[in-house]
User: Which sequence fits this backbone?
């Protein structure tokens, strides 16, 4: 019996050897390579690349916003306030509803004297007096040179004479042509020979002082509250004072335009 069992076991071993010969050992299939998940780009990396603008087409400074415009107006107002009584531009703001008015982007203003020999009391001396009054503003602090020309149609400032200034009692007036931006485009000075139709001719010394006063208006100056200034209403002096010069320098150191602060 024992012999039979051994024979059976040997047979089973022999069968296993024969089966292995017909089915050689196969290595297990290689594991699939591990693929890392795609990296999600950041928002910055995903943004498209933008080329810088060409220098010739570089965007200019942004337009003024209401807030920036308000800050600019406040800055100018503070500057005017810092000057205090050394200047009198505040009288301009009261007269123009808070608009600074002056000539812009000019280095020269042309002046024409318009003679009218038909006026009763006319004399060539009137032009000589007005010309001398113009010269007191040669060093005017604004950077503007005043040059006489013959053609009033092309002049920036035209000077005319009348017998009287229509019931005003005044002997001089200046009209400035300016727009809402405060830029002056033309000026017209009118000088009277008499205060009214029944009065005598205005004395030459007074005419000279009045003409010099009106040229100050033509440059952009308002009235002063100090009798030592040529821009005092009654024109008691014949030449600009240091305060007149300081006011003119300040006027041309700030831009023209509205200074009203909106609520």
Assistant:
């Amino acid at each position: 019996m024992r012999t039979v069992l051994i024979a059976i076991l040997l047979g089973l071993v022999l069968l296993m050897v024969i089966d292995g010969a017909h089915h050689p050992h196969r290595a297990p299939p290689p594991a699939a390579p591990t693929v890392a998940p795609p990296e999600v780009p950041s928002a910055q990396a995903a943004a498209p690349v933008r080329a810088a603008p060409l220098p010739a087409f570089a965007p200019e400074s942004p337009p003024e916003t209401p807030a920036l415009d308000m800050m600019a107006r406040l800055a100018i107002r503070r500057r005017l306030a810092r000057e205090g009584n050394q200047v009198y531009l505040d009288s301009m703001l009261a007269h123009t509803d808070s608009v600074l008015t002056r000539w812009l982007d000019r280095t020269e203003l042309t002046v024409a004297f318009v003679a009218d020999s038909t006026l009763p009391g006319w004399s060539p001396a009137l032009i000589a007096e007005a010309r001398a009054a113009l010269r007191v503003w040669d060093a005017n602090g604004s950077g503007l040179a005043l040059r006489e020309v013959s053609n009033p149609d092309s002049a920036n400032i035209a000077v005319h004479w009348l017998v009287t200034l229509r019931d005003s009692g005044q002997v001089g007036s200046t009209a400035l042509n300016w727009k809402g931006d405060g830029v002056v485009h033309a000026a017209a000075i009118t000088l009277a020979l008499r205060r009214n139709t029944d009065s005598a001719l205005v004395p030459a010394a007074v005419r000279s002082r009045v003409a010099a006063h009106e040229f100050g208006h033509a440059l952009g100056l308002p009235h002063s509250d100090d009798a030592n200034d040529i821009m005092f209403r009654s024109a008691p002096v014949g030449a600009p004072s240091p305060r007149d010069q300081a006011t003119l320098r300040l006027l041309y150191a700030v831009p023209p335009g509205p200074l009203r602060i909106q609520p």
Q: What stands out?
A: Helices lie at 2-22, 43-46, 66-83, 90-95, 125-135, 204-219, 242-251.
